[in-house]
Amino acid sequence: MSALSAIKSIWKVINFIREIFLNLIFLIIIILIFSGITLVKEAQKKEIIPQYGALVLDIEGVIVDTTLYSDEIYALQNKIYGKKVNTSRENSLFELTQKIAQAAADPKITSIVLKLDNFVGADMSSLQYIGKYLTKFSEANKPIYAYGSNFNQSQYYLASYANKIYLTPLGAVNVYGLAANNLYYKTLLDNLKINTHVFRVGTYKSAIEPFIRDDMSEEAKSNTTRWLTLMWNNYLNDISSQRKKADTQLVPAPDTMLANLKATNGNMAQYAISNGLVDVIASNYQFESEFTHQHHISIYDYQLKSKNKNLDSDDNEGNKPLIAVVFVNGTITDGENSSNVAGSQDIVEQLRKIRKNLNVHNIQAVVLRVNSPGGSVDASEAIRSELEALRSYQIPIVISMGGMAASGGYWISTASDYIVASPNTITGSIGIFGIIPTFENSLSHIGVYSDGVTTSPLANNTSTQNLPIEMNQLIQTSIDNGYQTFISLVAKARNMTIEQVDKIGQGQVWLGSEASKIGLVDKLGDFDDAIEIAATLANVADYEIDWQKPQGNWFNAFYSDVIAMLPKSTAEIFFEQLPEAKQLQQHVSLWNKFHDPQNRYIYCLNCADVH
User: Fold this and answer.
1) pLDDT surpassing 60 at residue 377
2) DSSP letter string over 189-241?
3) Record: fold of 317-608
4) What are phi and psi of 510, to 5 degrees?
5) Hey, is 529 helix, strand or coil?
6) What 8-state DSSP symbol labels residue 317?
């Protein structure tokens, strides 16, 4: 047998094994898909759980405007792995508040118990919105109780709405203040010999600082200190109002706090009760014993009596006028929606569907719920232009700003008739930047070089070579033009001059209460206010809300759901909750998720990290 024949025989064997291996993988995937579908259907068969007693808000994970995964998936996860705490769980803000509102009017629900040990947190705007509904529950003469072992600041904010707060004997209330920290990579990039080309407009546009500095600039510190201090004061005012105690008593200066803590011999629980943070020190057994006469029902088991409407349903009785709600939740990029990503393709498709079916579905107004630090200029503009197209049909567009509507989030908000922001909404950040890494120094360090010929310096645009001077000038000119476009859009939308917008622009971040004073928003309020304003502008009274959901790719949805069901180690869960880990994900996304054709981004990176 010749050498060639031997090689052919070996290749046939290898190819045969490869085909068997690939077929086995394909078969496993098919089995997983059909098994998953069967399990989902099984999970959808809800157990009959009594709908009475004390409603327990045992929230796990985080609260977001719109969720990526369905409740059925989490139920399926519990069936597969048993009931385990899931601190990565996403909870719908609006479904939660709808349940609290229903419970307030439900004679079978006698009280609310806040058990928040597994609640990771939410932005201030969302916490205030939930607090509004807890207040309505109290006004229905129904008591609220809170119990915990260690209250973080988000947990304690909600607990402050309780008639009585219980704390375990070894527990603590960790309310100390707000911080906004960042990671910086200049030295790391220098050590890796990565050449970072940065283009920006805006003195305060700090999104690119992590890549060109090892610390926060004085301009960024000054800007962040201003709005962060204001947010903290709002937090203190709210909890002191709920607890009916002075904020200086609840959260004294550090020296006073340490002196008071030493007076209790370092007993954090005794310190909390002495300073009015809690009302009762009780063990879990003692707390449960006090409420043994009541049946408890989890917020996850309490069922809404009326389902949310959507365009694909046929239950719009009497063809009532509809106010459509579209979500822009997360970093704005092209493509589809995913976790913490607002895909312009999905959002534009929703808006276009509304525009093309106005008469069929009797849509009279649109509320765009924006909770985003921005992202790609191209993706943001795609959404903004589709909003303008919808407005040309005389359909009112009202912006409801959530915890954040900054940079690209504000860009799309300019295409509206009215803007409603929470006092604690992080907004503004009117600025633009571009960032392109090249690796010619990294490659040459290991003996790899790039060379060739080109018909023009502008054509020689590759990550393996330094950017030509002409390309640098071209990109900076494009960035300058992008900034002029941004402030022109704002000036036209807010009836300001270019000079006025530039003065409050330059990448400066503003809190909602400040933005209202300088003309960036029309009204301070919440989502309910936005709905009412939309109804007023559309001149409708008896209407229903159409909660929009993207169509979505079924395979991607299934894959995401399978990923959601995979168990995570304690270390993974802990790491995910670290502010630094979240920052790192956001920083990497600048290069990973952003695919703007002109490398132009309107993004507020530092806005997103408050803890």
Assistant:
1) yes
2) HHHTT-EEEEEEE-TT-GGGHHHH-SS--HHHHHHHHHHHHHHHHHHHHHHHH
3) 2-enoyl-CoA Hydratase; Chain A, domain 1 (3.90.226)
4) -130, 145
5) helix
6) G
Task: Give the pairing type, strands 109-115 and 164-173.
Answer: unpaired
d(CA 141, CA 245): 22
Catalytically active residues, by annotation = 205, 407
How many whole angstroms separate alpha carbon 467 and alpha carbon 453?
15
CATH number of 53-176+251-298: 3.90.226.10
The answer to whether 53-176+251-298 and 317-608 have equal CATH topology is yes
Kindly report the average pLDDT of the chain as a whole number. 84
pLDDT at 455: 85
Mapped to the 3 state alphabet, what secondary structure does 143-166 carry? CEEEEEEEECHHHHHHHCCCCEEE
Residue 597 pLDDT grade (very low, low, confident, very high; cuts 50, 70, 90): confident
Q: What is the structure's pLDDT at 575?
A: 44
Q: Residue 24 — pLDDT band, cuts 50, 70, 90?
A: confident
Pick from 161, 300, 603: which is nearest to 426 by CA? 603
Closest-CA residue to 483 (of 234, 204, 164, 94): 204
Residue 529 one-letter amino acid: D
How many angstroms separate the CA atoms of 171 and 149, rounded? Answer: 5
**Residue 336 is encoded by which pair of tokens?**
């589809």
> Tokens for 416?
């509206």
Tokens of 34: 């059909």
* Predicted confidence (pLDDT) per residue in 181-225, tens digit: 888 888 988 898 888 888 887 666 677 788 888 898 888 889 899
DSSP 240-279: HHHHTS-HHHHS--HHHHHHHHHHTTT-HHHHHHHTTS-S
Most confident of 17-26, 260-269, 305-314: 260-269
Scanning 518-592, the segments in alpha helix (DSSP H) are: 527-538, 554-565, 570-577, 579-592
Beta-bridged to residue 420, according to DSSP, are 400, 523
Q: How far is CA 367 from CA 128, 326, 341, 547, 548, in A?
A: 20, 6, 19, 10, 10
112 with 142: CB under 8 angstroms?
yes
pLDDT in tens, 548-566: 876 544 445 445 555 554 5
Q: Mean pLDDT over residues 311-320, rounded? A: 57
Q: What letter would DSSP give residue 468?
A: P
**Residue 533: which pLDDT band, with cuts at 50, 70 and 90?**
very high
User: Which residue(s) pair with 280 in the sheet?
Assistant: 166
Partners of 431 in beta bridges: none
Element spanning 280, H or E = strand 280-281
Structure tokens at 116: 């928040």
Give the per-residue pLDDT at 439. 86
* Residues 6 or more apart in contact with residue 279 via CB below 8 angstroms: 164, 165, 166, 273
At residue 4, does pLDDT exceed 90? no
**Where along the chain do its domains lie?**
1-45, 53-176+251-298, 317-608
